[in-house]
Amino acid sequence: MATDEARRPTPFERLYAYLDAPNRRHTVHVIIILLLIVTPFIANQYTTVILTNALLYVVLCLGLNIVVGYAGLLDLGYAAFFAVGAYTIGILTQQFGVNFWLAIPFAIVAAAVAGVVIGAPTLRLRSDYLAIVTLGFGEIVRFTARNLEITGGASGLFAIPEPSLFGWRIDSASDFFYVFAVLAVLAYIASQRLYHSRLGRAWLYVRHDEDAAEAMGIDRVRTKLSAYIIGAIFGAMGGIFFSVNLGAISPESFSFEQSVMILLAVVLGGMGKIPGVILGAFIIVLGPELLRDLDSLRLLVFAVLLLLIMLFRPSGIWPDKRS
Amino acid sequence: MSFFDSFFQQLINGLVLGSFYALVALGYTMVFGVIKLLNFAHGDFYMAGAFVGFGALSLVSGALGAGWMGIFVAMLLAMMAIGCLGVVIERIAYHPMLNAPRLSILITALAVSLVLQNAALALTGGQYTAFSTDIGFGGFEVGNLFISHNQIILVATAAVLMIALELGVSRTMYGRAMRAVSIDKDMCRMMGINVAGVIAVTFFIGSSLAAAAGTMAGAYYGSIWYFMGFLIGLKAFTAAVIGGIGSIPGAMLGGLILGLLESFGTNIEFIGSEWKDVFTFAILILVLVFKPTGLLGKSEVERM
């Protein structure tokens, strides 16, 4: 923006620039890793569980950020991939007794296949169509989970066995905090690498001008589809560990509201900006904890918030400079 | 019941369902025509229309009774109110975004939908509200077939509204302006057409049709709740896509086809009624894959 040069940067912009500086980035990383390591020791059980949930949201939001922020495709049924991951693990481990770690590849493949099934026909069309088809797809997945016997119907699956790693049983709140911390860090690294990759630049190009991108030899459909599949895999990873963390899943965990919350976190934080999206995820999870009294009005508050962001600060609280 | 009777009974149910879908689909298609926006909040106009219609009915029922006379007046009031709501929302939320990236306006539309839904949730406490009327259950019996008066009135009202719309769009000056704006906004401005005014009128008509459908559906089914617009919004969108988005006769045709498909499709043994909604989305995806322009849509494939 041209006007940006003329005025003084706001304190927030100075803070972002400070944190973003390449020479300081490693310091920030080290501080965050240390915080993640010590948190279960200093926080009580309740706080640890909430923070674990926030880390799950970080994974989901970084995944949706690839679809919405990087490739510019609106996905309103993202919870569907989360559900595919969770249910695949639930069915394989609880009903067929498959080892948890062996079941993970199946869950990832299932999510990728779901991404292709829904993406391949619609990515050729206008992005509005994709938005509403993903919305429909999210509902199909939820209805299907509710109607099938293998998914436990409306009550869902329960008694999903806890995994163990080399004899270490992952079962306490702090164990799961570390599991999700590792997952969030991996998601962060993957997002960062994708952002700077050739594919990441192709997404940027397609997002800004599809026709020009295609004229430069970028395969439009394949580029979008890859964003869609990678986003689906992130969602499935979240779902895989979500299912074993809770030990029980039901169709209502994967409702439209869930998809909307994930989207809100991404939009709030700043589409395409990794630290912004992480911040958004934390705000969305921790915000309601701080505003417990508002419970019945919680969604209304969030909806108005989303509308205000779009009208007054569409690039989020920590905007991505590249867009 | 013989096969023949059951066929006609499903036909009638399908027509009633299809009239609702068609009225809501018209708003989608008209708004899409003028500003190329999928108005996610459109289903919530239907919901809001049902609530306003319910409120209006309790106001006028003292003077006019809660029969069809009262419902018509309530419906007209709801159409006015929701029409104005549509115009206000367009002004506040969509107008500033018309030149923003498409993703932004789509998210804005989603936000508007959530605001309407959750405002209704906060106001009603999430309970079903009984939409009590005196419309009764009378009807004709033709052989084994039963057609209620209500069904006839509903389909006839929907038909009158749609014919009025079709005449308005094809014969009046505003209709002509609307069609012109959907083709080329910049050129319209140069020709002295008040584009913002045309968009406002389009929003008014589209939202008021959804409100008409909402009030009638409330009276017909007897209960309303804050979430009733979500599913019908999706289904009306499907109807608009089947007919060809942007095409007004297409939306009517698509609504009827979807109503009939649902009515017949879910009565076949192997598709139980619990799969009804999955069935609709499957149709949507199939249409988008094989005929994205719909039955009556323009053949150009727009890219975005």
UniProtKB/TrEMBL annotation, chain A:
Q: Keyword Glycoprotein, does the record have it? A: no
For the keyword Ubl conjugation, the answer is no
Q: What is its main location?
A: membrane
Membrane topology, as annotated, equals: Multi-pass membrane protein
Q: What are the record's GO terms for cellular component?
A: plasma membrane
A matching Pfam family: BPD_transp_2
Q: Where in the cell is it found?
A: Cell inner membrane
Keyword line: Cell membrane, Membrane, Transmembrane, Transmembrane helix
Entry GO MF terms: branched-chain amino acid transmembrane transporter activity
Give the stretches traversing the membrane: 26-43, 76-93, 100-120, 176-195, 225-249, 261-287, 299-318
Q: Which domain of life is it from?
A: Bacteria
Question: What InterPro entries would the database entry show?
Answer: ABC_transp_permease, LivM-like, MFS_trans_sf
The protein here is known as Branched-chain amino acid transport system permease protein
Taxon lineage: Bacteria, Pseudomonadati, Pseudomonadota, Gammaproteobacteria, Oceanospirillales
UniProtKB/TrEMBL annotation, chain B:
Q: Where in the cell is it found?
A: Cell inner membrane
Under CDD domains, the record lists:
TM_PBP1_LivH_like
Source organism's superkingdom?
Bacteria
Cite the InterPro entries for this sequence.
Answer: ABC_transp_permease (IPR001851), BCAA_transport_permease (IPR052157)
Which GO terms of type biological process are on file?
D-alanine transmembrane transport; L-alanine transport; L-isoleucine import across plasma membrane
Question: Cellular component per GO?
Answer: plasma membrane
Q: Please give the organism.
A: Modicisalibacter muralis
Q: What is the lineage of its organism?
A: Bacteria, Pseudomonadati, Pseudomonadota, Gammaproteobacteria, Oceanospirillales
Name used for this protein in its record: Branched-chain amino acid transport system permease protein
Q: Which GO terms describe its molecular function?
A: L-isoleucine transmembrane transporter activity; L-leucine transmembrane transporter activity; L-phenylalanine transmembrane transporter activity; L-valine transmembrane transporter activity
